[in-house]
Amino acid sequence: MISVTTILHPTDFSPSAEEAFQLAEALAGGQKSNLVVLHVVPPDGPAVIAGKMRVHVRRDEERNRRRDALRQLRPSNPRVSVEYRLTEGDVGAEIVRAANQSRADVIVMGSRGRTGLERLALGSVADQVMRQAPCPVVTVTATPVSHASPGPHAIRGGSTGREPAAIG
């Protein structure tokens, strides 16, 4: 059996990232692993478009808002050890850097599931992470509510492995 001591979960707070967090938490609880939850602020920082002007939100305020959002991701299992990290930079590169620094055994990340021309035009953070990561990468695509099975045992998400996807 493979020993998993550290799981990295990068999040952009999207529905697919929320489902990936649930999977990462379950894996961490089952393996008694440390869970590192990471949020990367893109280098341009947040911006508000007002007419033809692009106004950047104050970085310190935005950083505090994102830090608060990050800390709201709490595992339901109190025995799961969680470390929170907030960083700024190229999202894919920062995820790979965090995986190396934390010596992650696996990365569990959300995916938008882009395919075809959309993926080609917009690129894919998950593709970049999968090509450069020092460990396996599991991607989770949020399941639309209309496709979820009824009842408390509905399985959601499901894209795993090395298929193209994006976070962010």
Write the layout of secondary structure elements.
Elements: E1 6-10, H1 15-31, E2 34-41, E3 47-50, E4 53-56, H2 59-71, E5 81-88, H3 91-102, E6 106-111, H4 116-122, H5 125-132, E7 137-141
Parallel strand pairs: 1-2, 1-6, 2-5, 6-7
Antiparallel strand pairs: 3-4
Helix pairs in contact: 3-5
**Low-confidence spans: pLDDT under 50, at least 5 residues?**
119-123, 149-168
The total strand number stands at 7
Distance between the termini: 32 Å
Q: Give the helices and strands as they follow along the chain.
A: EHEEEHEHEHHE
- Strand ordering within the main sheet: 5-2-1-6-7
Q: If you average the pLDDT, what whole number results? A: 78
**Strand-residue fraction?**
15-25%
Largest beta-sheet details: 5 strands, parallel
Overall description:
The protein has helices at 15-31, 59-71, 91-102, 116-122, 125-132, and strands at 6-10, 34-41, 47-50, 53-56, 81-88, 106-111, 137-141. The chain has one domain: HUPs (Rossmann fold). The protein has 168 residues and is an alpha/beta fold. It has five helices and seven strands, in the order E-H-E-E-E-H-E-H-E-H-H-E. It starts with 5 loop residues before the first strand and ends in a 27-residue tail after the last strand. Strand 3 (47-50) and strand 4 form a beta hairpin. Helix 3 packs parallel to helix 5 (125-132). The model is unreliable at 119-123 and 149-168 (pLDDT under 50). The chain has a five-stranded parallel beta sheet, with helices on both faces. A two-stranded antiparallel sheet has the order 3-4. Helices cover 34% and strands 24% of the residues.
